[in-house]
Design goal:
The chain is mainly alpha-helical. The protein has two domains: 250 residues, Fido-like domain (Fic-like fold, Orthogonal Bundle); 71 residues, Arc Repressor Mutant, subunit A, CATH 1.10.10. The chain is elongated and about 65 Å long. The two termini are 37 Å apart.
Amino acid sequence: MCKILSLMHIPKLPPKVGLETVEILKQVSFANKELAMLKGFAQAIPNDTILLNSIMLIEAKDSSEIENIITTQDKLFSAIGLKVGTVDPATKEVLNYRSAMWKGYESMKKRDLLTINVILDVQKELELNNAGIRSLPGTVIINQKTGEVLHRPPEGKEVILDLLSNLEQYINEDVDDIDPLIKLAVLHYQFETIHPFYDGNGRTGRILNILYLIMKGLLDSPVLYLSNYIINNKAAYYQGLKDITEKEDWHSWILYILTAIGETAKSTVRTIEGIRKLLDGTIKKVQDELPKVYSKNLIELLFINPYTKISFLVDAGIAERRTASKYLKELEGIGVLNSQKKSNVVYYINHKLVNFLKARY
């Protein structure tokens, strides 16, 4: 019989153990270096929406996959601009994740603070309801691979709000002078442990991670996501959560999160380099072969929306409908786009970008 952990009384932050070991500080240096590199590379993309749209959708897919909400990149990219009723439920939930990220980003930037209200805004956008903080027992946290019950969340709305208030204070006040990346590991565990909502806790917590990095100035925009790393190292993730709960082993957990940040930052830099190379190659090709069609806004649109429709060009003010159709067909003629009909909608697919993203993720 597996051991069910019950933390009806969750210790408040900060942890009562030392967190800055030599090994952890070494990994902090690595992660901060890679984050700084990523921040610089992200600034080099001429239109940051190009990067954000692609990477954020992939993160939305991966983060939702952790919760067994499965869709594909093709479905996601082709769903942009479609009516809600024509999108399958899983894809709709993943698109909600992207909306929740932007909602949290905008809410956080207003005051440059990560408050309970920002967290509530994120969860509300994810679940599209006003359920708010749960007053009933929460769903147990289970290791999806082994089925082991890791933790039963605390009960009672007042208890949960008290713990969230403590978490809010820990996030926004730097009284302990701990490196922000170590604090990110701590706050991620604490939020997962509180599990304050009826649904959407895992996804809300992963959005909280990126908002914290932006608030601390380590990134300018939401370009770094840990979901893919967690999927590929899921057993260690759940073991780390369990070991803090059972043994107060913060050391292994913090090293896991720091490694995730550093390795994901390195991987994201490679993604940015690849996107930039494709963008520059497409610009040159269109300038050389279709100089009358070329415009900066048109090429950027093909990278912001890899599944492009005629209406996207019209809405962006690039061309009227007939001319937009002509442009897209000519771009298909030189191999920049491939057309495909889905649900009675003709998409012009930036196939090189789509294939690159599939290979990367």
